[in-house]
Amino acid sequence: MSQWSQVQQLEIKFLEQVDQFYDDNFPMEIRHLLAQWIESQDWEAAANNEAMAMILLQNLIIQVDEQLDRVSQEKNLLLIHNLKRVRKLLQGKYHGNPMHIAVIISNCLREERRILAAASMPVQGPLEKSLQNSVVSERQRNVEHKVSAIKNSAQMTDQDVKYLEDLQEEFDFRYKTIQSLEQNDKNSALIKQEMLALQAMLNTLDYKRKEVLSKIGRVIHEIDMLMSNMLTEELLDWKRRQQIACIGGPLHGGLDQLQNCFTLLAESLFQVRRQLEKLDELLTRLTYDGDPIPVQRPQLLEKVNFLLYNLFRNSFVVERQPCMPTHPQRPMVLKTLIQFTVKLRLLIKLPELNYQIRVKATIDKNVSTVSNRRFVLCGTHVKAMNTDESANGSLSVEFRHLQPKEMKTSAGSKGNEGPHMVTEELHSISFETQVCLYGLTINLETSSLPVVMISNVSQLPNAWASIIWYNLSTNDPQNLSFFNNPPAATLSQLLEVLSWQFSSYVGRGLNSEQLNMLAEKLTGQQVSYNDFQLSWAKFCKEHLPGKSFTFWVWLEAILDLIKKHILPLWIDGYVMGFVSKEKERILLKDKTPGTFLLRFSESNLGGITFTWVDQLENGDVTFHSVEPYNKGRLSALPFADILRDYKVIMADNVPENPLKYLYPDIPKDKAFGKHYSCQPNEVSKPSDGGGKGYVPSVFIPVSKILNDSTEPHSPSDLLPMSPSVYAVLREHLSPTAIETAVS
Fold this sequence. Notes:
By secondary structure, the protein is of the alpha+beta class. The chain contains 25 helices and 19 strands. β17 (about 660) and β18 form a beta hairpin. α8 crosses α16. Its main location: cytoplasm. It comes from Dicrurus megarhynchus. One of its GO terms (molecular function) is DNA binding.
């Protein structure tokens, strides 16, 4: 079943989540119509390879054209219209930046997998639950409603200012008319009556001036309250969601909505500023005792400018955190002399600012807060923000060619550059710019989340552990001394994040049983998820009992094994993986002989083994576990083929495959058949030509089991025989002779 078919079978609450990340950048119609084709392409690799991304974009357009031809024959007018619109979108938006569509589709597929994993969990994790709080959603709606109301109020005040201007012009005309009369005429009763009318008009002017100033004050107050409370909380929530998304959590949305709010508020403040300028202009033409404009206007203008400064400063955000294109699922880990990308956005989108704001990138600007190591950024570190590069037309800038380089120390050698670079040192990429608009000059600064610098790819796992722990434990965006005294983490939240590592990196998260096993491995006991606090040292620094490696190194090796060697089997859910030897035997003991399960080795890094149950002649149950297969052996033979072709040699018996049913009772070929190679591995006989050619050879996994003991055999008992040795034995010796040779 395709991934998209599984998505369509989800409950409505999960379908609503899917609906949130499909928009005009990648319409859902295309995802639906081209589901199989889209899932068969490597969008993740294309997101880091422009040539590959361009080929995929061209092929995507070809696929759309084929669908367009099909629906044209069916005369489906609505679908024809939508597909033409999509084709125009793909050609227009992404032709100059094909990697962007690859990133979008890769993210959508990843988020689908995460939602599918979440749907299979019995309960929603605490972190994800907090991100989908109904109170937060209600606040978002309230912010949008209030921003719209403020914009309307500012526009209505415009009409009041225009009325005031017309009223003052009429007053000015009548006043000048009276002033132009001869002195005798001024003493007439008619003129005196006109003077009384003029005084009444002045009173009305005074009232309207006070009314306009009062309305302007209310608009300013409403903007101030919104910015101080709900809008600030919305921005902080978005930044927290971004942190969580960076470590594998739900994709963070809402930035476009925030941009709309920031832009409308900026437009409203500039509108109020123009209204205050108009009042100043009216003041120069007419003033009087008790005039409210010279008293109130300076205070209001100062407040407007203050709000504009704050609004612009908050609107300068890092839209996409620093990330090496070679490791898209490990953001904020940067390797020296390797390019990384980072994207910034100004949430105030005004046409006057397009190409007018130049952003400068620096590293460790506040050097007093970081380690003794110093870095500089090589490559293009100054670029202009514009609305052309971004697919959604936002005012943004993306740095694509930055490289961190460590500076030499005063002694003439590099600091700690080398294999022992500390992966707990945090650094910061800073960005600064200046906005000049309508007489205002505003300096803006922002920073990335803390990054870890490495000099060797072997340091990446521990560096990524640091990124996970930081962003799980704190919402402080700039605590560079965090690891001087790292806080403990709640076990329930840590397990949720570990499940995200699997759903985002290898397409399937962990279920409650698998998480239970990890919890016991971390704590050494059965504990309550909600209450237990786990230390950073226990997670990443202390070796597991009796082992030469830490918990995180063990888990990271398993992720690498799945990604490179058993990914289809993992995604299908046929790898139980995280199950202890004790639990394994409890599960298998009552099952049909030949029932087996797949689990990850607890003693070998990046190893996977299988254990099957068998029954002795006296009726006793016995278990056999093969020596774990690691990436070296799996590179030579696919794991599905190993399961198909695996043989054991029992005493006085011919070789046979003991693996019959995948736990609990799935026939082996039904579970793994679609992953087998085209032809079963069979050893061919020597050709008739004798020495003219080579004897074809294949790898066949073989183990030997002795039947003279009822004790469970150790993995060394099941050490696989060399494939070439077994091939020769099988071709030229009888089963008895094979047994003798093995013995």
